[in-house]
Design goal:
about 350 residues, alpha/beta, Rossmann fold, about 30% helix, Purine nucleoside permease, signal, Pur_nuclsid_perm
Length: about 350
């Protein structure tokens, strides 16, 4: 009996020691997520991350267990990260016991190609959906059946711009709704963020203003940078041109049931939103607190009269403006969340 009691005592000590050794959790109130940065995080030419770091004074570095990338933070509980190693940085952060993400508001940021039918270079859009443009069927456009606009269409569908009729094309899936390529965000929160930031002045650039003149017949492409609501389409393929822009417009409408409008295209959004859904299902994050804010660094097709190969990848002239306006649009939301954290910690804005 004495030996048994001694064993219980030892077990108690070990449990107490484990409790004492449990790491202190830092509560991340707002987390700004960028995709990349060129050079240093501050002090040189900006990438997607630098304006956020400098203007929000994210001066302190904090480690993430298991990866080289570090968080940055300020004294108010605003954190930032550039996912320079991709999803692994996001997963490592969620699994790191030093951080509490229970009430974290996420702002996934970045630059994009912009739809000239909707907005101009330097414009910024709060998304209501992130739409996945990766998993689909593809036929060379030169060999598509007569009457098809392009050779891209949904797996399980019979032709472009239609939903699949049979979910069994995905094996274990039994409901066509499960095949959706539209990841809905919290639209109440997105509307709240837009309304909070919509009067923020957007920067412009004389060189970009001059380039806008080439967009005859595209009135929205000729306007100064604007702040709007509109959807983000993510695809690993770096596509370009009017045919693909038409596909993107219809693909977004198809999967959002005519409720969404294609505005921005990039290569990361779909991957990270799928990651966030996995992390939410496992209980690490709250999907209702996720926002996506993208800005246009270039158009996703050439202006009239310009060969397609001369405009693809033409991001450099508009990048700095897109970095600038992206942070300008998001900063009022960050400040509001921090200023009234006692309320927003438990009450998500836009839910009423």
């Amino acid at each position: 009996m004495k030996r048994f009691n001694a064993g219980l005592a030892l077990a108690g000590l070990l449990c107490a020691g484990s409790a004492l050794a449990a790491p202190h959790k830092e509560e991340i109130k707002v987390l700004v997520v960028a995709n990349w940065e060129v050079g240093a995080d501050k002090g040189d030419e900006p990438g997607e991350y630098q304006d956020w770091v400098e203007r929000l004074h994210l001066d302190e570095e904090r480690p993430i267990r298991g990866v080289q990338e570090k968080l940055r933070r300020n004294a108010d509980g605003v954190y930032g990260i550039a996912l320079k190693s991709g999803s692994i940085d996001l997963h490592a952060l969620a699994l790191d016991p030093h951080y509490d993400l229970t009430h974290t508001y996420w702002i996934f940021t970045g630059i994009s190609g912009v739809n000239p039918n909707v907005a101009s270079v330097g414009s910024v859009a709060w998304a209501r959906w992130v739409v996945d443009g990766d998993a689909l069927r593809e036929i060379d456009d030169r060999t598509v059946p007569k009457g098809w606009p392009y050779g891209l269409y949904a797996i399980g569908a019979d032709k472009p711009d239609t939903l699949p009729a049979n979910a069994n094309h995905y094996g274990s899936v039994t409901d066509v709704a499960e095949l959706s390529k539209a990841y809905p965000l919290n639209q109440g929160l997105a509307n709240w963020a837009f309304n909070l930031s919509k009067h923020t002045p957007m920067a412009d650039d004389p060189a970009i203003a001059e380039r806008r003149k080439a967009w005859k017949g595209f009135p929205n492409a000729q306007k100064p940078p604007m702040l709007i609501m509109g959807e983000t389409l993510g695809a690993l393929r770096y596509w370009h041109g009017p045919s693909r822009n038409e596909w993107a417009e219809k693909w977004v409408k198809l999967w959002t049931k005519d409720q969404g409008q294609f505005v921005m295209t990039n290569e990361e959004s779909q991957t990270y939103q799928l990651d966030m859904r996995t992390l939410a299902r496992l209980g690490y994050v709250d999907l209702n607190r996720v926002m996506v804010l993208r800005s246009g660094s270039n158009f996703d097709m050439p202006p009239p009269g310009v060969p397609i190969t001369e405009s693809i990848g033409d991001e450099a002239p508009g990048q700095k403006l897109a970095f600038d306006n992206n942070e300008r649009a998001g900063e009022p939301v960050v400040h509001e969340l921090i200023a009234h954290w006692a309320t927003y910690r438990t009450h998500i804005p836009g839910q009423d």
